[in-house]
Amino acid sequence: MCIIGSLGPDVFEHKEGMSVLRINKKDTDKSVWIGNLVNLVPENQLIWVTCNIERPSSINASYAFDYEQKLVISVIGTDDELDANFDTQRGDVIVDEKVAIREVKFAANSMYSGDLTIFNMHSLPYDNFKVRVQFINAGDIDKYGHANHEDHQMNVKFTMIFVNRDYTTFEFFWKYTFVVVTLIALFFPSCNRGGLLSKSRIFTSLALILEGFTVRLRHTKWRTWSYQQKWIMVLLVLLLFFNDPLIYFEVYNSKIGGEVLGGIYIGMMSLFICALMLFWLCALDETRDTGNLGRRDRGCKKHAGKIGFVAVFWLYMVIAYSHIRMQEKDDPTYEAAQEGDRYLAATAVGALLIVIYLLWFLYYTVRGLAVLCSLPPPFLFVFLITFFTFVATVVGIFIAALYPVPSAALDFLGMYGLYNLYIWTM
């Protein structure tokens, strides 16, 4: 899967534009940039406009500094052709002269500042967008004592980002492939019903492999299912929704309900990840006590603490993802970093939850190490792939590989492929 993902299409396409930001000590100067995004289609999924300001020539390249920049942002969306003049453009006003303050940061030996968010939307209800950005009083650069020119200018590089249509096709193909295979793993009928083919060992083996999980256990009462069988049933059902069967409607129904469906997917994705994390803790705890890979079911009371912790983790994931989405929906100029201390606090809480879970997992692993090392080969194999999936999950959460729009096809197919292969193997 990782090889296929690394060969997949780029997730994003970029278009760049340039403007000149003039600084005049004697008068307030407004530098204006107008950009057009045209002929967008639902497969482009989102739009994100950023800018980078060039370091003033009067400030030494080795000097790191920052300043606040005031922007006035306006955005119009339309399905009609764009006019040359912004003020006469017909369409729906998405952002109406929104005043935004951005912190412009220059690292030492960097010719351009870090990215400044101008505008973003996680759906494309229009084919064309017209964006106007006014730079007002281009920062109090003089406070550093390095701007010794009465009148100078800086170039501003604008980047317009949207999802590559080829990647959307790639994502559709693999998500629906995973959905179909998961349905097969759940419900594929038994094919070994006698006849000539049933005498073939190859056919019999293939029929057993393909036979759906619910079909194989259809004559067994739920109360007699093993601890692990109950968990696999739950995880298979959640995996089905984790694979995002509604992605078609999320992309092509952006004007009506697309954001709602996106929110539902975030909730189901988070629920699957947290259920998997809970399964690992419970299974390791049961293995330590029974030496039989968690087949003994002691009910929920013993695991109440784990359930409570993972429920908190799920709420954190849903709130974190949904808060950013809702803020961007209400204010397309929103930038998470502008929340300052609250953003840092939320990041710290997430890191703390991951560290607590990591220590908990390692605690059960170390305590049950003697039992785990003595497991029969099939169960030891299950533990090894479980540990690998655990490490990949922790890393994926830290690098945001599980975000609904990944940064690379490798992130998407690597994580989705890993979870699907893991649950199918189980």
Task: Detail the topology: elements first, then pairings.
Blueprint lengths: L1 H5 L5 E13 L5 E8 L9 E7 L11 E14 L13 E15 L9 E6 L6 E9 L14 E13 L1 H23 L13 H10 L2 H4 L10 H16 L4 H6 L5 H33 L13 H27 L10 H27 L1 H5 L3 H22 L10 H17 L1
Antiparallel strand pairs: 1-8, 2-7, 3-6, 3-8, 4-5, 4-7
Helix pairs in contact: 2-5, 2-12, 5-7, 5-12, 7-8, 7-9, 11-12
Please give a structural write-up.
With 426 residues, the chain is α+β, with helices and mostly antiparallel strands. It contains twelve helices and eight strands. The protein has helices at residues 2-6, 165-187, 201-210, 213-216, 227-242, 247-252, 258-290, 304-330, 341-367, 369-373, 377-398, 409-425, and strands spanning 12-24, 30-37, 47-53, 65-78, 92-106, 116-121, 128-136, 151-163. The strands form two sheets. A four-stranded antiparallel sheet has the order 1-8-3-6. A four-stranded antiparallel sheet has the order 2-7-4-5, with no helix packed on it. Helix 2 (165-187) packs antiparallel against helix 5, helix 2 (165-187) runs parallel beside helix 12 and helix 5 runs antiparallel to helix 7 (258-290). It is elongated. The model is unreliable at 145-150 and 291-296 (pLDDT under 50).
